[in-house]
Amino acid sequence: MKRKEKLALALFSTLILLSFVTPSMAAPPSYIGVATGDEFVWVPTINMVNINTTGIALFGEDNWTIAYNMILELYKNSTGMDFGSFSGAGVKLNVKNVSDEITVAPGIFASALTIDIHTSAGLNNWTLVANNSVMAIYDPNSLNETTAMAALSGIPLIMAKGFNYSMITNALNTVIAADPSLNGNITVQAQEIGFKITLLSTYLEAAFNSTGAPFDVGTLGNVVFNLKWNSNGVFEEGSLLYGGLTIVSILLVPINDLIPGFEIATIIGISIVTILSIIYIKRKKNLLN
């Protein structure tokens, strides 16, 4: 067995072992930026104004109207809810215990966090989905580009303070460079406390053309995924942008704030006005011509 395979097996075995660890109070390592009793809430937002603006620009008014209605129907059939019921959705994480430092593999160290995770499909209507789950937070100084991806295992809502995200980007870029279908089509860059992944427009155009769609979308723009953590290692923001417009995002919100369940419903209402305005302007121009 190769050294990398042995190391990967050791890390995996440790993660399994951590799930059986009995929590005990201890002084957390300095690279842990959270504490027992901390609670964090993230709220997703779909910006329908930007989605509709992009959709009409790419597909044309008639084609996008058809596609938009299909999306709404698909959501309703899949969830049994109207799209507005997405309002108030969120994820909540409770830190129940932070362990002392343990040795994961020779020269690699971590702390075990015991957490509960709740999800919400409505305003402050939380459902427990993970109870007493254990996640490993690795000492960033004990990782390198070969082992750094272990830090993203599971749901990386909490990372180590001072984590060097260029280790992640370098590891991903190595994988991309080795794949001819990805090389030159996807870029990964470190930024602030996090990184971004960009799908280049040429890659998207080739992928769309291969679907055999009966209409032309013209020239596409880049799609960018931004992932950011704060100085304490808590996931702060994730967003998807197209052509510089934010389409979908998930944000860390102050725990004392109510989940803004009105926001998505308001955005949908605004998007309807936007569509009607665009249609009115286009039809008025056609009449004048």
Question: What does this protein structure show overall?
Answer:
The chain is an alpha+beta fold. It has one domain (3-288). Helices cover 33% and strands 29% of the residues. It is built from six helices and nine strands; from the N terminus they run H-E-H-H-E-E-E-H-E-E-H-E-E-E-H. It has helices at residues 3-18, 48-59, 61-79, 166-177, 201-209, 262-288; strands spanning 39-46, 90-105, 108-120, 126-138, 186-190, 194-199, 223-229, 235-242, 245-253. The protein has a nine-stranded antiparallel β-sheet with strand order 4-3-2-1-9-8-7-6-5. The longest helix is centred in the last third of the chain and has 27 residues, at 262-288. The radius of gyration is 23 Å and the shape is globular. The N and C termini lie far apart (73 Å). The relative contact order is 0.16. Residues 3-25 and 258-288 have low confidence and may be disordered.
Strand neighbour order, sheet with most strands: 4-3-2-1-9-8-7-6-5
By DSSP (H or I, 4+ residues per run), the number of helices equals 6
Q: Major sheet: size, sense and barrel closure?
A: 9 strands, antiparallel
How many runs of DSSP E, i.e. beta strands? Answer: 9
Mean pLDDT score, rounded?
77
Q: Give the termini distance in whole angstroms.
A: 73 Å
Rg, Å, rounded: 23 Å
Relative strand content? 25-35%
- H/E series: HEHHEEEHEEHEEEH
The helix fraction, in percent, is 25-40%
- Main structural class: alpha+beta
**Integer count of domains:** 1
Shape, please? globular
Low-confidence stretches: 3-25, 258-288
